[in-house]
Design brief:
heterodimer; A: 1022 residues; Methylamine Dehydrogenase, Chain H; five-stranded mixed β-sheet; 10 helices; 14% helix; B: 233 residues; outer membrane lipoprotein receptor (LolB), chain A; 13-stranded antiparallel β-sheet; disordered N terminus
Chain lengths: 1022, 233
């Protein structure tokens, strides 16, 4: 039946079967994702470097959003790294040739959610084009320094992998501009290089700090004998460890800075048993400990930045948990003021404009800030949409709202569309801390559930943003509850009243968290060796619930049966119940037989909408140093598993999503990309089309009403692919055809769902709205380079009412017809443009014929245009009256244009011949003729005032005033507008009559006279 | 015998996998657009076309006389604007938004606009014109894998060209323009390549940021009165 439907609804232009056409991202051509941001809370910034020569070209590296460039000091930014790894560790601009940029991928703020990189990149043209130059296996790059006197010499500090041993750690040096690299400082497979600096006056003097560190899924260690402070005076050939005055080893992470204007002065924050600030005044030969505030020494593994003013060796900056600065070389520190607004905590990057050292650019967990007073106060940059979502959810409103939690940025809600686009101001914060799962209550639209780390869940009233804590508590006989950093909060699919949460146990509530029932035993492995979080951190205690382990990480209720619930844990268990929790079955042993490692995090479970026996799951083993993509499907309720594989896959898997209408259509989000399969997972392709290719795709949802695909990314905010219907209906057969026209759904007459508010947005990121009218869609197997594509639309009487140029892109193309006819021909030759006259009336409901010309061939289909019955303020009768009135004015414009055309032609004829005419009487008549025409012309349209600030209004403009008002709104015309039409009709007639009179009076004289003088005016004039 | 055959296979494979150089790609492109000989004869051009803005036609005429001048005329509702470039001076007049006087170009803008006076485009005879080209491998242009070439002209202007390997046509270019003291990238997409009687092949549709320009008439080597390269409202 379905195939018959396709045959009857799809018009195929031609069919030439050549080599098999691969279905991939390009097949979906113009189905481009909308980047929704938001930038209101922005995201983690990891690196900033600028062009010293101009002080306003700045590159910003982010934790999961690639690299952004501004050429205007931050007024606007462009992303310049969308085709590469999005996790950035370091950026360096060549001081001698600022078009040369190095970017080290792989952030080095070694938190639990840090992403890896895939090497070092170089651009020779300010970031427009990049090439990878090596260091592919370093995973994390902390710093890049270019010798200020010799651009060929580059040092790269690579801490190396976080989750495993590696020989690729260490300090690297290139002596040929990045063509080749040598490892010049290697300590061990456990200790890499965390920081590097070059003495600007003696660039063979190089300082480096090494760092021993390791994470496991359940612990973190910063510190060991491999950590140290090093100095070389021969460009890295020989190294000497600095000890004099430093605390006893072992060290943890060391961040240090040289004073550029007095490079013997160095400050270092040395993580040790007692972490301290150390100052050297002799180039690192000896050190002295200074007292330091909590901010200066806090969390050295995460706050690894210290910077000295380029011109003032006494001015030291410590971006850390907060922002501190010293004016006495680091002996004492003051903290930034909150005047001017809150400065987001957790700082990782600082760039000082060397041309104006008052001006600082700071990178935090919440975006970039600019200071104009040396760090005392700060302004937030509103246009960097690098927000780091963990999950996304939607409600059922129209337009629907998007909900999600973010790294260090709480939980937010914002609309999927808004007047003028979705701006920062449209987003509303609803919960604090780090945010993860946010669930709008599907039953009560006023209620939202949101959490902060470790399962601190609140029930929140959307209007008042008042919250009530509803976290389940430990029972008398229960073990201490183990909440994951990113605790699942899940709403039932089969029964929307069900709300689930899990620690080691699973809980369910049906009354908004007022009463919870525990519906499982401990579903984890409960391995006590993995539960020593209180000892975590290494030299500095650090256990913020990020290392909590043996916890439930994912929960999924079968869409077909509310008693059938799946649970996945972070220690490898995958369990289900078929009786709402009475009994549980663990299928962990089964998936390992398919080649998926044991103990992985079960990162998502997707019970099929179409068959209870089918379940998909993703498995994440990166915390054991294995970044492969593991996706499995079971068709027998978990008894046996098949791994879904693809050469396209990159990054460990976060989320698999089955389409709501086509069971063969699957989506997969990984740490390095978004993928789709149209055949149940046999073949996959990377989704591009405005989506960065290696995006950190953490969550995927599909809107059941709009058919939109919504993607939560950890570094580029949210993306929406509007209406994925073409993905559902795309088949191999269609893809093989040269061109296919898809049926257009009925087109509802609308001027859009919003007005524009009348005022542009002043600043900050604005996401575009979806189109209000469904586009006409057609498919091209290949991009069309020869021949043209044109769409013509005819009304029922066969009148051509609109022509639209067609795009020629490979894959699906979209034509947007605004349901208007062509604008009228208006009187020409005025002193200004009459912009209102560029408007055109909307067509009336009915059937229209689309004539699509592709190359030499013409194809037709019917477009059904229907009245918008949902707009109660604008009835069909109103619409008809509006159309009639608008068309009266439209014709009036064309009638007046015809009069003015004659005037213009006659005046041209007169002016072309006036100097040639010999007969003085004829000449006088011509002057008089021209004067009278000009007088009439000046009454027909504004001819005098060119300034846009002067409202010269003549008949053309008078008509436009009513025409624009009537045709440009969804309302019946008012009585006075209709009355005005009659008045203006009279005026147009008067002008036509006046024109005739002038012509009668002079034209014969002119034409006879010209003929007599042998001036063949008639031809020339017209 | 078998071994020799195998060597030939390897040799063949080596030829197949050999990456194309920028030179080779441009040579193929120039061949696809009619060949260097045909293009070298082009000393002047006049393109007429229109851009649809909200369904209304904006007519555009572009006249180029090699090394002497370039003039774009834009007309909407009987109102006319222009941009003129000559070796020594240039002017802009765009009255559509209320501009009342002709604006002379700044020295910097004029320098960057000098390439406007080349009716052959940047890639024909590029070496002789002092242009350097760097190949950046392949890049995806709206789903079509293209060669990506960055050309830098003698005057230092950079333009990135994306050439479809199947047709050797340029399907996209990104020019780096200076606007309001900032570098701005402007992308153009090219299609509807059509062979003219003179043997050259030109794109008759150019998608610009504000809409698609359709070329309706092309004159090759028309007589151009140099008087048109002077501003007059």
């Amino acid at each position: 039946m379905r195939s018959i439907y396709f045959l009857t609804t799809i018009l195929a232009f031609s069919f030439i079967a050549n080599a098999q056409t691969e279905i991939n991202s390009s097949t979906f051509g113009m189905m481009e994702a909308r980047s929704m941001g938001p930038a209101t809370m922005s995201g983690r910034i990891t690196a900033i470097d600028g062009v010293a020569a101009d002080g306003k070209t700045i590159y910003v590296g982010t934790a999961g959003g690639g690299i952004w460039k501004t050429t205007n000091g931050g007024a606007s930014f462009n992303s310049i790294f969308d085709k590469y790894c999005q996790s950035i560790g370091a950026i360096a601009v060549d001081p001698k040739n600022p078009k040369v940029i190095f970017a080290g991928t792989g952030e080095s703020n070694m938190r639990n959610t840090v992403s890896i990189g895939d090497g070092l990149y170089k651009s020779n043209d300010g970031g427009s084009n990049w090439r990878k130059v090596g260091l592919e296996n370093t995973e994390h790059i902390a710093d890049i320094v270019i010798n200020p006197k010799n651009s060929d010499i580059i040092y790269v500090a690579a801490p190396g992998p976080l989750w495993s041993k590696s020989k690729d750690r260490g300090l690297y040096k290139s002596s040929d501009g990045g063509k080749t690299f040598d490892k010049i400082l290697f300590i061990s497979e456990d200790a890499g290089c965390a920081d590097v600096a070059v003495d600007p006056e003696h660039p063979d003097t190089v300082y480096a700090s090494t760092w021993e560190f390791r994470r496991k899924p359940y612990s973190f260690n910063s510190g060991g004998i491999g950590s140290g402070m090093w100095k070389s005076t021969d460009g890295g050939k020989n190294w000497k460890e600095g000890k004099n005055g430093l605390p006893p080893k072992p060290f943890g992470r060391i961040a240090f800075a040289i004073a550029p204007s007095a490079p013997q002065n160095i400050v270092a924050i040395v993580e040790a048993a007692e972490t301290g600030l150390y100052i050297s005044a002799d180039g690192g030969e000896s050190w002295k400990k200074q007292s330091a505030s909590m901010n200066v020494v806090s969390r050295p593994f995460y706050f690894a930045t210290i910077v000295i003013d380029p011109n003032d060796p006494k001015r030291v900056y410590r971006p850390g948990y907060g922002f501190s600065y010293s004016t006495d070389g680091g002996y004492s520190f003051a903290d930034a003021s909150a005047d001017g607004g809150w400065l987001h905590s957790d700082h990782h990057a600082l760039w000082i404009n060397p041309l104006n050292t008052n001006q600082l650019y700071l990178g935090t967990d919440g975006g970039v800030y600019i200071s104009l007073d040396k760090g005392a106060t700060w302004n937030f940059v509103h246009n960097l949409p690098v927000s780091q979502f963990y999950h996304v959810a939607m409600d059922e409103k129209k337009p629907y709202n998007l909900y999600g939690g973010l790294q260090d940025n709480g939980s937010w809600v914002g609309p999927s569309a808004a007047p003028g686009g979705v701006s920062n101001a449209n987003w509303k914060a609803i919960n604090g801390g780090d945010g993860f799962w946010v669930q709008p209550d599907p039953v009560n639209p006023d209620i939202v559930y949101a959490e902060s780390q470790g399962g601190e869940v609140n029930r929140i009233n959307r209007s008042t943003v008042k919250s009530v804590g509803i976290k389940p508590q430990q029972g008398a006989t229960e073990e201490k509850l183990r909440w994951n950093w990113n605790t699942p909060i899940v709403v039932g699919v089969a029964n929307k009243k069900n709300l689930y949460m899990g620690n080691q146990y699973l809980y369910k509530t049906t009354d908004q968290g007022r009463n919870w029932s525990r519906i499982s035993p401990d579903l984890t492995t409960n391995n006590k060796e993995k539960q020593k979080q209180e000892e975590s951190g290494g030299l500095s205690a650090d256990n913020t619930s990020a290392e909590n382990h043996c916890t439930i990480f994912t929960i999924a209720e079968s869409p077909l049966d509310e008693k059938f619930i799946w649970v996945g844990t972070d220690d490898g268990n995958l369990q289900y119940t078929r009786d709402a929790g009475k009994t549980w079955t663990n299928v962990a042993a089964n998936y390992t037989k398919a080649g998926i490692p044991a103990q992985t995090w079960v990162s998502s479970i997707e019970p099929s909408l179409y068959d209870k026996n089918i379940v998909y799951a993703t498995f994440d083993n990166h915390m054991y140093g294995d970044h492969k993509t593991y996706v499995g499907v079971s068709k027998d309720m978990g008894k046996s598993w098949t791994m879904l594989k693809s050469e396209e896959f990159t990054g460990f898997a976060h989320k698999i999503k089955e389409d709501l209408k086509n069971k063969e259509l699957l989506f997969l989000g990984t740490e390095m990309g978004l993928f789709a399969s149209l055949n149940g997972g046999q073949k996959w392709f990377r989704m591009k089309n405005n989506i960065p290719e290696y995006i950190l795709a953490r969550d995927i949802q599909i809107n059941p009403t709009t058919n939109d695909l919504v993607i939560a990314t950890h570094g580029r905010g949210l993306y929406i692919v509007d209406d994925i219907s073409p993905m559902r209906s795309m088949t191999k057969e269609i893809a093989e055809k040269d061109a296919v026209l898809f049926p257009t759904p009925p087109l509802t007459l609308t001027m859009g769902q919003f007005g524009n508010g009348g005022f542009p947005k002043t600043s900050g990121f604005v996401a575009p709205n979806p189109v209000s009218i469904p586009p006409i869609k057609y498919y091209l197997k290949e991009r069309m380079s020869k021949g043209d594509i044109k769409a013509e639309i005819y009304d029922a009487s066969g009148n051509l009412i609109q022509t639209i140029p067609g795009s020629k892109r490979k894959g699906i193309n979209m034509l947007n017809w605004n349901l208007n006819m062509k604008p009228p021909k208006v009187a020409t030759g005025g002193a200004k443009l009459d912009f209102g006259a560029l408007l055109s009336p909307m067509v009336l409901p009915g059937d229209y014929t689309l004539k699509l010309t592709v190359g030499d061939t013409v194809y037709k289909s019917i477009l059904k245009v229907v009245h918008d019955a949902s707009n109660k303020d604008f009835t069909l009768e109103d619409r008809k009256l509006q159309n009639k009135t608008a068309m009266d004015l439209y014709k009036m414009h064309e009638e007046l244009a015809a009069v003015v055309d004659v005037i213009n032609a006659k005046q041209k004829l007169i002016n072309d011949n006036l100097t040639k005419v010999k007969d003085s009487s004829l000449k006088r008549s011509m002057v008089a003729y021209n004067d009278e025409l000009e007088k009439l012309r000046a009454e027909c349209l504004a001819t005098k005032q060119k300034s846009i600030f002067a409202d010269e209004k003549k008949l053309r403009e008078e008509i436009t005033e009513v025409y624009a008002a009537v045709s440009g709104q969804e309302a019946a015309p008012s009585n006075l507008q209709i009355q005005r039409v009659t008045v203006l009709q009279g005026e147009v007639k008067k002008k036509a009559d006046a024109n005739k009179q002038i012509l009668n009076k002079y034209d014969k004289i002119l034409m006879d006279g010209l003929r007599k003088e042998g001036l063949s005016g008639e031809k020339k004039g017209f | 015998m078998k071994r020799i055959f195998f060597s030939f296979l390897l040799l063949g494979a080596a030829f197949i996998v050999k990456a194309q150089t920028a030179d080779e790609i441009i040579a193929k492109h120039v061949e696809a657009i009619g060949g260097a000989d045909a293009w070298k004869k082009v000393q002047s051009t006049k393109y007429e076309g229109n851009v649809k803005v909200q369904g209304a036609d904006v007519s555009v005429t572009l006249t180029t006389l090699s090394g002497k001048g370039s003039r774009q005329d834009i007309s909407l509702m009987g109102m006319n604007g222009f941009r003129i470039v000559t070796p020594a001076a240039g002017w802009n007049y765009m009255p559509f938004q209320g501009q009342t006087e002709v604006d002379p170009m700044t020295a910097e803008d004029l320098k960057e606009a000098q390439d406007d006076m080349d009716p052959q485009g940047k890639l024909v005879d590029y070496k002789e014109k002092g242009t350097t080209v760097e190949l950046f491998g392949k890049d995806d242009v709206d789903g079509t894998e293209c060669y990506k070439l960055v050309a830098t002209t003698k005057s230092g202007v950079k333009e990135t060209f994306f050439i479809d390997p199947k047709t050797s046509f340029v399907i996209k270019s990104i020019a780096v323009l200076k606007a309001n003291g900032q570098e701005v990238e402007q992308a153009s997409m090219y299609s509807n390549y059509t062979k003219l009687p003179e043997g050259i092949v030109v794109a008759m549709s150019i998608m610009l940021p504000f809409g698609e320009m359709n070329i309706t008439k092309v004159e090759v080597n028309p007589a151009v009165d140099e008087g048109i390269f002077k501003p007059a409202k």
